[in-house]
Design brief:
Transmembrane segments: 16-37, 43-66, 78-98, 104-125
Number of strands: 0
Radius of gyration: 17 Å
Subcellular location: Membrane
Function: May be involved in fusion of retrograde transport vesicles derived from an endocytic compartment with the Golgi complex.
Protein name: Vesicle transport protein
Order of helices and strands: HHHHHH
Membrane topology: Multi-pass membrane protein
């Protein structure tokens, strides 16, 4: 019952959702701004990754952590979730342990794409619309 979102009032859940979501956006923008500093790739990778984690955490306040995890690993979101979580980890590995800036940037781009695809799964027919748009543009 403690992990259920319904133990919090609706106002509290919305407030914490907004706080986490805005913090996630701010972290992502801050990371992008810090990218241009010397050694900024490490700061970018950390802040961008923290921003995505905060954005994911924000929905826990609306749905509750258990429902959130069930929704994340639903078959229609499974691939996007696994790619997103893997890229979150690989971004930090690339920047701190492997010291590969290009690889870190690639993983950040993949984080963005996976997070976008994951988010689109919550909007009815959004993925289908994106696929149709890209397929009509490509041929």
């Amino acid at each position: 019952k403690v992990l259920d979102a319904s133990t919090l009032s609706f106002g509290t859940r919305v407030r914490w959702f907004a706080i986490c979501f805005v913090a996630g956006i701010l972290c992502s923008f801050l990371g992008t701004a810090l990218l241009w500093l010397p050694k900024g790739i490490k700061l970018f990778a950390v802040f961008y990754t923290l921003g995505n984690i905060a954005a994911l955490a924000s929905t826990c306040f609306l749905m509750g952590p258990v429902k959130q995890l069930k929704a994340m690993f639903d078959p229609k979101r499974l691939i996007a979730t696994v790619v997103m979580l893997l890229c979150l980890i690989l971004t930090l590995c690339a920047v701190f342990w492997w010291n590969k800036k290009g690889l870190a940037m690639l993983f950040c781009i993949l984080q963005f794409l996976a997070m976008t695809w994951y988010s689109l799964s919550y909007i009815p027919f959004a993925r289908d619309a994106v696929i149709k748009c890209f397929s009509s543009c490509l041929g």
